[in-house]
Amino acid sequence: MYELSDTIVAVSSPTCDKRVIIRITGPDTVETCKQLFSSPITKNISGLLSGSVAVDDELKVEAKLYLFLAPHSYTGDDIAEIHIHTNSAVTEVLIDNLLGRGLRMAGPGEFTARAYLNGKIDLAQAEAVNEIIVCSNAFQLSAAEKLLSGRLSETTAKVRSAIMDCLSLIEAGLDFSGEDIDLETGAEVIERLLGVKEQLEQLLSGSIRYETLIDLPSAGIAGAPNAGKSSLLNKLLGKERSIVSHRRKTTRDVLSAPCTLAHCRCVLFDCAGLLIRQEDVLDELAQQAAVEALRNSAVVVFCIDISKSDFSEDISIFRILKTEDSPQDALRQKQKAENRASVFRPPLSAMIPVATKCDLVSEQVLSNRLAELNELFGAELLAISSETGAGLEPLRETIDAKILDARYSMLDAASSAPDKRATSIEHQASSIALTARHKQAVTEAIENVVESVGELREGNDEVAAMTLRAAYQAVSCIESATGGHVDEQILEQIFSRFCIGK
Predict the structure, then answer these.
(1) Which of 390, 389, 326, 314 is nearest to 353 (CA)?
(2) Which of 133, 217, 317, 431 has the fewest CB neighbours in a 10 Å radius?
């Protein structure tokens, strides 16, 4: 898969312009740096050097060289990083110069692959490197950091040790069955294996799917027609995503776009105005789309037009959205009798009521009406204006905080500790995040342990030992660096997702 005797090179920085980082690793790293770098490099030197690097035979540019010698480096081989402030044209010439000296362009993830193959990190930690690079929110980052720190590997190492102990006892019983040696009985080994099974099941139940953290949470903008939802969406996104009109029912479909907040990114969406009564089939279809989107959202911003005088429609919609105790069947019957659409109350984890169009009322009216609305809706409304931008920053902060709170609740539920709240992301994300590959390996190990217990109960110790070896192998494949065998195709699949230079 990878030729470890090669010296490889790649641009490690996000771009080839401005501050560029060129990374080199392999047996010829130090010799190559001696040929290109102006400052003298002795065999045992390690750390930071300042000087200039020869881009080609004529051009030299100022550079800093970070040199880390084997085995005390990220890859386990000699590794160098050339830091220069330049442009893509100069970067390209320098890379060509290095390739002309016998270096090879690194493949995707090859630097991390060398760290894994040289035993510097295990496979779970290698996967974490890529997750840190591509993460889009604080939850992914925290989960990836847990993987990189070896949290999963620590857990699986204990499980492997327990499996090996049981396997040793079974095989000892087979090898010395005819001799007068006091060995643990089959019942005692079965009890141990049931403990191993419980550990593996706890690893699954007490973890969260990493893919769940990758999915962007959604924040919906809801309210009655013409409540200022589309204008708010455009303002929060900083672009014209939704058509704005003074006519009611302008928005029919669900319009969405990614939105970057302080701690994470989310999918922000605007949908059709919610109606108590539908007039035609288009209304019904628009309501169904709105319902589905809101039902799957983590946060809902409920818009109330503060410039109008009658809020009865908004109150009715808000109460239905906020109702937690009304039986679904009763609601359906009530809506059927009153010609309403199907229930549009989503199982909300957070609701943010906002008073829109605050620029259309005077300051005195605004203050009095906010107090009136706070009492009517039983909640404190944020006053905002999409026209002037007033209140939008506090709204962004509130959406961000509510999404964080929703994700914390998810992490708490995953770790089976919903009663233990904490304020830091690091503490809340203490659950181990498993990738699909990890979950498959743990599930396979559980199945093999269960099969081994069954064979032991039937007196088939040899078959039990065989299935227990398979369980050990499955758990070992999560980390691999400590003895498990991982198929080359699996390695290629893992590292192919990396970008070049990492």
Answers:
(1) 314
(2) 133
**Sign, Cα dihedral of 409, 412, 417, 423:** negative
Element (H, E) at 302: strand 299-305
**Is 263 strand, coil or helix?**
coil
Average of per-residue pLDDT across 275-294: 60
Model pLDDT for residues 49-104, shown as the tens digit of each residue: 899 999 988 899 999 999 999 998 989 999 999 999 999 899 999 999 999 999 99
Sheet strands (E) in 119-174: none
Cα 126 from Cα 26, distance rounded (Å) = 19
In this prediction, residues 27-44 reach a mean pLDDT of 87
- Cα(151)–Cα(175) distance, integer angstroms: 36
DSSP of 415-450: TT-TT---S-HHHHT-SEEE-HHHHHHHHHHHHHHH
Q: Rounded CA gap, 182 and 220, in Å?
A: 67
The model's pTM is 0.53
Burial 299-336 (b: 16+ CB within 10 A, else e): bbbbbbbbebeebebbbebbebbeeeeeeeeebeeebe
